[in-house]
Amino acid sequence: MDFRFEDIGPAEVKRRISAVEPLTESVRDLVDAVIRTEVDDTALDDARRQIDDIVARLRTEEKPGGFGVPFTRDLVGMPWGNAATGVRNAIAPPLRPVTHAGVSTAEVTLGAAYEGPGGHVHGGVLALLLDQLVGECASSGTSMPHFTGTLTVRYVRPTKLGQVSLRAEVTGTQDRKAFVSGEIHDSEGVTAEVEAIMIRPKEFAGRDEVMAAIAEATARD
Ligand SMILES: CCCCCCCC/C=C\CCCCCCCC(=O)SCCNC(=O)CCNC(=O)[C@H](O)C(C)(C)COP(=O)(O)OP(=O)(O)OC[C@H]1O[C@@H](n2cnc3c(N)ncnc32)[C@H](O)[C@@H]1OP(=O)(O)O
């Protein structure tokens, strides 16, 4: 796994986020509008033309591949393309987990773009959000970055589109493994439960200091 560093501090991170995040929000709104619009075919075609124009302008300068996860000089990660949390990713709902005393929580609104069964959230989207949350929980809660080894989701009942809350907690550790339990609930109670085995990859061994600093910066962020 490659580490890429950028010699920037918090003010520059803030500036970059505030420059791009409104665009991400507009694109998120666009995705929702395309799903729900009832305008006629001519209006749809006109919209497509204008959007193709904008895409061509954005592509005049672009990175190859994904955005990656560059780190600042203070070891704050910038996972801005992340599918669940990315500030540049309109597909991300976005999830904004907060970890305090080993417990990670988040609230998120899942609209039309996250539909599976009619009026309800797609199970894969719930798994995505839980995967991210248990990842951040294991990493911040144990002060070491962990990857998901096994993720088991039990869908208790359908989750209505709308606002949901997520919670995860490290329940134990064993060598390089951390065990995390969590859940998603809506206003009527729990809709999905998760059990995860999170693993600190062998390849991180011997880099404990930098890994701990990354986990600490992630928790603080
Ligand atoms: C630029 C670098 C940045 C890094 C730092 C970032 C820090 C930021 C902080 C916080 C951000 C949090 C971001 C969360 C993101 C969301 C979470 C994800 O989506 S993660 C992606 C999905 N997951 C994968 O892609 C894993 C793919 N699999 C692997 O990489 C390996 O298989 C891995 C690491 C899971 C295990 O590989 P081994 O070589 O280290 O482990 P072995 O030595 O074989 O096993 C160790 C122990 O673990 C068990 N184990 C191995 N694999 C297991 C598995 N899949 N499930 C359960 N147990 C497993 C084994 O049985 C063994 O247990 P026994 O010691 O014998 O008791």
TrEMBL record:
Q: Which Gene3D superfamilies match?
A: Hotdog Thioesterase
Catalysed conversion reaction:
(5Z,8Z,11Z,14Z)-eicosatetraenoyl-CoA + H2O = (5Z,8Z,11Z,14Z)-eicosatetraenoate + CoA + H(+); octanoyl-CoA + H2O = octanoate + CoA + H(+); (9Z)-octadecenoyl-CoA + H2O = (9Z)-octadecenoate + CoA + H(+); decanoyl-CoA + H2O = decanoate + CoA + H(+)
Q: Where in the cell is it found?
A: Cell projection, Ruffle membrane; Cytoplasm; Membrane
* Keywords tagged on the record: Apoptosis, Cell membrane, Cell projection, Cytoplasm, Fatty acid metabolism, Hydrolase, Lipid metabolism, Membrane, Transit peptide
Q: Where is the Thioesterase domain?
A: 118-191
Coarse class of the primary localization is membrane
Task: Name the InterPro entries for this protein.
Answer: HotDog_dom_sf, THEM4/THEM5_acyl-CoA_thioest, Thioestr_dom
Q: What is its EC number?
A: 3.1.2.2
User: Out of the domains of life, which is the source?
Assistant: Bacteria
Keyword Cell membrane present in the record's keywords: the answer is yes
User: What topology does it adopt in the membrane?
Assistant: Peripheral membrane protein
EC class (word): hydrolase
The record's family statement is: Belongs to the THEM4/THEM5 thioesterase family.
Its name, as the record gives it, is: Acyl-coenzyme A thioesterase THEM4
Q: Which organism is it from?
A: Gordonia liuliyuniae
